[in-house]
Design a protein that fits this description.
Rossmann fold, eight-stranded mixed β-sheet, disordered C terminus, globular, binds magnesium ion, binds cytidine-5'-diphosphate, alpha/beta, 4 domains, about 700 residues, six-stranded parallel β-sheet, 21 strands
């Protein structure tokens, strides 16, 4: 591949000088200036990889994969050799790999087995402006790590926005290099008012541009896969209906995080002459992926954001207004190769007065349970979670919420120390609840089934959304001849669907005939495979799909599975309200929530009552609060969980209690009280496996005796 000259290459010497003389350097550069693809190569060319790898983190999986492929091809090597990537469930690196792209979550997981990250000589925290939760934790960890490895580790923080001073003051006033971009002027045009439908307005703008404006690609920002798919098909339809020869050809390309790899590649391919590309993308095209050739940007001003409300314990996936920083980034995409135009589908007054200055960092909109669990499991000395060095401190409320959840699901003990269970959970690339459910399932001997449920839950949606209007709200699962969850809820239905698919030899046609998305089902199968091999390390048991034939056996197994799920989802239990309300209205923390219309029907008891308690996977606030993916649980399982909530000391959970005095407790006492001992990680891993094995054998013995 020919070597292209990017702005960053002109500053190679300055970068080298700064990195040589400083442990931490912040590099600010316009999107497309070459930070992601070039910095790693610069470090490699100048010998930094002699003593270790260059690791470059990406907040998005798609970016890690696509960018590493690009770098491999620039260097003329095969992916997985000198240049590789590592994302959740996929590691494409080898002994020869010296440039490794990985998601920030992956690097965090690597801290577990190697807290000093010894394989790396250089760590580049890329796209720091995105402020993903994981990157934020890594920032805090890097601050500690550079002190410990001051002689042999270089850390580079890159950002596409002008937040250099903030990073610099966080990192002991480290130097900030500004790489001037080569942006052409972008003319910004505003709508007179907000359109009734941003989708319709974006569509019309795209058609107008295509029919009236000179050549140049169009980049249209949408909020998610759903509206991208709809917009793409509508655009195709409208363009087909244009008069032959009235304007140039057009190729319409979707671009989002769950696009299959072969579709992602299409966006970077050359197009035939006299053909305009219209790229319909999520905010992935804002900074993480640069598509060259864009001259027109259409910005409806929205983004889909997941946010968490610690007060109610609710998550919602909302379409919200972008920030001014995002709006400017979007506009910038139009001026990369020549002067461009950006059409903002909102008035200037909105830009000026309504948009937030910058996006709220993910850490401030998240449940911190996984983050805190990671922190707890890193074995870093004296970590008091409520005092961890975050670039932006999360609210105390949300940190406390996370600690409570971890305590409820036995990941940390009364003293805030990670438990054996917590360690096992941290090893699993799953949210804490699911990880906990799997561990409980292992103890209850229904792990195989629980793995299937976890795998199915890891796909966004296995059901093909029905397009006909009447059916769109409520999916006609029953009509499709799908299993009904045996009256126990969605988790069980997902299990039954998978098992039936298994019995049909994973037939693609079977999925289609039953209204299931083939890609999602295949993904579930893949994830299940990988989860089993992860769990195999603990169980040493084969975890193939095992269907229970007899009704009685099946019933017993389902009950165990529900119990295991209940342990994992201890912080997501809802209680039935009143009889006359039926089961669709439940009480949760004194608020009313509704069962999502897509939920599969639950069994009623002899008195016609729905289960007193259900667990749910997701609490979603759309027009009203809904719980989605639910499963009935028994009251006797819930009682001990709620009892646990009655007494705990949040300060202790946070780690505060480990004062020097307490650490000086004579060894004997400590060993007697196993819950307060946190052995060193390396020994501990062995211990976990060993003790799991022992527990397993003990259970087997017990059964034999019975
Ligand atoms: O990270 P930053 O935004 O500074 O730039 P980059 O991602 O390193 O991109 C530098 C150049 O490589 C841009 O012109 C991209 O269009 C190009 N690139 C590409 O063509 N294909 C990729 N998969 C990644 C980057
Ligand atoms: Mg980049």
């Amino acid at each position: 591949m020919e070597k292209i000259q990017l702005p960053i290459n002109e500053y190679e010497n300055e970068i080298l000088k700064a990195v040589t003389h400083n442990s931490i350097v912040v590099i600010i550069g316009e999107t497309g200036s070459g930070k992601t693809t070039q910095l790693s190569q610069i470090m490699h060319r100048h010998g930094f990889t002699k003593s270790g790898r260059v690791g470059i983190t990406q907040p998005r999986r798609v970016a890690a994969v696509s960018v590493s492929r690009r770098v491999a091809s620039e260097m003329g090597v095969r992916i997985g050799e000198e240049v590789g990537y590592s994302i959740r469930f996929e590691d494409r690196t080898s002994d020869r790999t010296c440039i490794k792209y990985l998601t920030d979550g992956c690097l965090l997981r690597e801290c577990l087995s190697d807290p000093e990250l010894r394989q790396y000589a250089v760590i580049i925290l890329d796209e720091a402006h995105e402020r993903s939760l994981n990157t934020d934790i890594l920032l805090g960890l890097m601050k500690k790590l550079v002190r410990r490895r001051s002689q042999d580790l270089k850390v580079i923080i890159t950002s596409a926005t002008l937040d250099g001073d903030k990073f610099s003051s966080f990192f002991f006033k480290c130097p900030v290099l500004n790489i001037p971009g080569k942006l052409f002027p972008v003319e910004i045009l505003y709508s007179m008012e907000r359109p009734a439908s941003y989708r319709e307005s974006a569509l019309q703008t795209a058609i107008d541009l295509h029919t009236q404006q000179p050549p140049g690609d169009i980049l249209l920002f949408m909020t998610g896969q759903d509206d991208i798919d709809k917009t793409v098909s509508k655009l195709e339809e409208r363009i087909r209906s244009l008069d032959e020869g009235s304007c140039m050809d057009a190729i319409i390309l979707p671009l989002h995080g769950s696009l299959p790899p072969e579709m992602q590649v299409r966006v970077f391919m050359q197009v035939p002459p006299n053909c305009r590309r219209i790229i319909v993308a999520t905010n992935i095209a804002e900074t993480s992926l640069t598509v060259d050739g864009v001259v027109y940007v259409i910005d409806p001003g929205f983004v889909k954001q997941r946010q968490y409300n610690p007060g109610t314990g609710m998550y919602s996936l909302d379409v919200v207004q972008i920030s001014r920083v995002q709006a400017d980034q979007r506009a910038g995409r139009a001026g990369r190769t020549r002067p461009g135009k950006c059409y903002r589908l909102y008035p200037f007054s909105v830009y000026e007065h309504e948009l937030l200055e910058a996006t709220i960092p993910e850490i401030q909109r998240s449940s911190l349970a996984s983050a805190v669990l990671h922190l707890k499991s890193l074995d870093l000395p004296d970590i008091d979670v409520l005092k961890f060095d975050f670039l932006d401190q999360p609210s105390r409320e949300s940190l406390e919420d996370a600690l409570k959840q971890l305590y409820l699901i036995d990941a940390i003990d009364d003293d805030g120390l990670i438990t054996k269970i917590g360690r096992q959970m941290a090893e699993l690339p799953l949210e804490p609840s699911l990880a906990r459910a799997l561990i409980a399932a292992n103890d209850l001997e229904c792990l195989s089934q629980c793995l299937t449920v976890a795998a199915m839950l890891s796909c966004e949606n296995v059901f093909t959304p029905t397009s006909s209007k009447g059916a769109s709200k409520k999916r006609e699962r029953v009509d499709l001849n799908l299993p009904d969850g045996s009256g126990m809820g969605d988790h069980i239905q997902l299990l039954e669907i998978y098992e039936e698919w298994h019995q049909n030899h994973y037939d693609v046609e079977w999925c289609k005939n039953h209204g299931l998305q083939v890609r999602s089902m295949m993904f579930a199968k893949d994830v299940r495979q990988q989860l089993s091999s992860l769990m195999y390390k603990i169980t040493k048991e084969s975890l193939d799909v095992m269907t229970k034939e007899s009704f009685r056996e099946k019933r017993i197994m389902i009950r165990k599975l529900r119990k295991a799920l209940c342990v994992g989802f201890a912080n997501r239990l809802a209680q039935r309200m009143e009889r006359h309300n039926g089961y669709r209205t439940l009480c949760y923390k004194a608020q009313l929530v509704q069962v999502h219309p897509t939920a599969c029907p639950l069994e009623v008891d002899d008195d016609g009552l729905y289960p007193e308690y259900v667990l749910y996977n997701e609490l979603l606030v759309t027009s009203r609060p809904y719980i989605r993916n639910l499963c009935s649980v028994e009251a006797s399982w819930v009682k001990p969980i709620w009892a646990k909530l009655q007494h705990f000391d949040i300060g202790k959970l946070s780690g505060r209690a480990l004062s020097t005095e307490e650490l000086n407790i004579p060894t004997q006492e400590v060993t007697n009280c196993s819950a307060t001992v946190t052995p060193k990680l390396s020994e501990n891993r062995e211990n976990i496996i060993q003790s799991a094995r022992e527990r397993f054998l003990a259970r087997k013995q017990l059964k034999v005796k019975k």
